[in-house]
């Protein structure tokens, strides 16, 4: 029982950090909590960044453009280091 409480506290802490860095996760999280609340912390949905896709979360095209430009810049820097 003590281990489950500890895990629940860590999951709650993760959700707070997630809301700070991934605001779109709040919408999905609230949607998923209405579907069902797990009895065991092992069954809780964490909504990891890799599970957030364009199909599940709507995102501003401006933000997507900035992300794409960042990836291009990082790729250019990596190529410069290789040379």
Helix content: 55-70%
H and E string: HHH
Q: Report, as a whole number of angstroms, the end-to-end distance.
A: 56 Å
Number of strands: 0
Radius of gyration: 18 Å
Q: So how many helices?
A: 3
Class of secondary structure makeup: mainly alpha
Strand content bin: under 5%
Mean pLDDT: 77
Domain count = 1
Shape: elongated
What do these coordinates show?
With 83 residues, the protein is an all-alpha fold. It has one domain. The protein is 65% helix and 0% strand. The protein contains three helices and no strands.
Would you spell out the secondary-structure blueprint of this structure?
Elements: H1 2-21, H2 24-35, H3 61-82
Quick overview:
This protein has 83 residues and is mainly α. Helices cover 65% and strands 0% of the residues. The chain has one domain (2-33, 56-82).
List keywords for this structure.
83 residues; mainly alpha
């Amino acid at each position: 029982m003590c281990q489950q409480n500890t895990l629940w506290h860590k999951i709650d802490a993760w959700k707070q950090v997630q809301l700070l860095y991934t605001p779109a996760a709040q919408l999905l999280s609230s949607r998923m909590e209405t579907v069902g609340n797990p009895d065991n912390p092992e069954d809780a949905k964490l909504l990891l960044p890799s599970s957030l896709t364009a199909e599940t979360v709507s995102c501003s095209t401006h933000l997507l453009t900035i992300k794409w430009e960042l990836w291009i810049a990082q790729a250019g820097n990596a190529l410069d280091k290789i040379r």
